[in-house]
Amino acid sequence: MIVAKKITVLLAEDHVVVRQGLCSLLTVDGNFTIVGEARTGRQAVKLAQALRPQVILMDIAMPVLNGLEATKQILSTDPSARVLILSAYSDDEYILRSRAAGAIGFLEKQTSAEILLKAIHEAAKGNVFFSPTVAKRLHKTQMKRLDRNGLPKVKGASLTSREVEVLQLIAEGAANRQIGDELGISIKTVEKHRQHLMDKLGIHDIAGLTRYAISAGIIENRVQLRIL
Question: pTM for this structure?
Answer without folding.
Answer: 0.73
